[in-house]
Amino acid sequence: MPELATLLTTSPKTAVxxxxxxxxxxENQENLGYYLFLPDSLSCNTKIMVCVHGxxxxxxxxxxxxxxxxxxxxxxxxxxxFSKKHYRGYQRLEAGVTGYTSAEALNKILHxxxxxxxxxxxxxxxxxxxxxxxxxxxxxxxxxxxxxxxIICAAGWFTFPDEGKTYPYxxxxxxxxxxxxxxxxxxxxxxxxxxxVGEFDNTNDPGLNRKKRINRQQxxxxxxxxxxxxxxxxxxxxxxxxxxxxxxxxxxxxxxxxENCERLGGxxxxxxxxxx
Length: 276
What we know:
The protein is 30% helix and 19% strand. By secondary structure, it is α/β, with parallel strands linked by helices. The protein has one domain (18-271): Rossmann fold. Residues 1-17 have low confidence and may be disordered.
């Protein structure tokens, strides 16, 4: 993992006197790395934002894009690095060559941060872009009790709240399913969820999963798929008599570009400010 080779350290369990961006590896887990942004100081009120990259593995770029907003709003940023070699199917919470799933890997990272610094990581806000948005909504389905706020941007495709379709298309469990992801559906549906996608992210581009099954179920591009998923969540809430906290946000002037979505669309305001 060349880009995680350099380990920058601060003294654990001590006050942090300036903001820092560090590379870390979980102890005794050489294939489990993450970026960590620490604000000027840590307190019992410091919050956690986990940012999950897409298939470009641009974890460091995400942290650098969001670090100023994080500092202004007293957030730590944790950005796991799921290498292609070790976590090829991380978006679907599949087990990697390490023997545990990407969801379990994130849990190990959260525990590592809590052990090193005077912060609690049992509740997080969770952001994902593209493939990271796939991971984020499935992780939140699995562990809704861990989530304060879920922000997903430009997901390629979704797990629908449909017990009649097998995972990862829906919630039906099979012998080869990754996890019993539908057990906590009512709690997931009541989370604060923000779904963002660029207004021009409306092409069936080569980076998109274009399986016929997904096209039929979810649509032919990210914008259409996001709308169908939001409608499915709202419909399930209505069916179960639950109150949803959903917002679907179209990012003006943007296609499928993380840099443009942040620079032009200001997606970080939906992550760190409590009223969005």
